[in-house]
């Protein structure tokens, strides 16, 4: 879903996307002439490999995201929000969702079996000392 930056107003504009088993819904609201606030929720599930055993496991998503979208290069500094620069005055919500999913996938993830084994090994190590 692509939205022209100039079509965003000061009244929050809702959006709702679905990509596979992932939902992305929230609002876009113009804060300044070249800055739009995106507030959204990412829900659903994605499949990830365990970083220890490589077994594919489904991970439930329940993420809140908030950041400013800048129409072009931004010289504004904001302590409250990260700023994402938008090219060609077009907000591409599919691309934003894809980027957020890739960011989630880049985190360390271990399946329940490996977590249990890690805990047992740590406990055994502590008992041996």
Report the major sheet: 5 strands, mixed
- Report mean pLDDT, rounded to a whole number: 86
User: What sequence of helices (H) and strands (E) makes up the elements?
Assistant: EEEEEEEHH
Percent in helix: 10-25%
Number of helices: 2
Q: How much strand content do the residues show?
A: over 45%
Structural class call reads alpha+beta
Rounded to the nearest angstrom, the distance between the terminal CA atoms is: 58 Å
**Estimated radius of gyration:** 19 Å
Oligomer: single chain
How many beta-strand elements?
Answer: 7
Broad shape: elongated
In terms of per-residue confidence, which ranges show pLDDT below 50 for 5 or more consecutive residues?
123-129
Q: Which short descriptors sum up this protein?
A:
129 residues, five-stranded mixed sheet, two-stranded antiparallel ribbon, 2 helices, disordered C terminus
Concise overview:
This protein has 129 residues and is an alpha+beta fold. It contains two helices and seven strands; from the N terminus they run βββββββαα.
Explain the overall architecture:
With 129 residues, this protein is α+β, with helices and mostly antiparallel strands. 23% of the residues lie in helices and 47% in strands. The protein has two helices and seven strands, in the order βββββββαα. It has helices spanning 93-105, 112-128, and strands at residues 2-4, 13-19, 22-32, 35-49, 56-71, 82-86, 90-92. The chain has a five-stranded mixed sheet, with helices on one face. Strands 1-7 form a two-stranded antiparallel sheet. The longest helix has 17 residues, at 112-128. The radius of gyration is 19 Å and the shape is elongated. Residues 123-129 have low confidence and may be disordered.
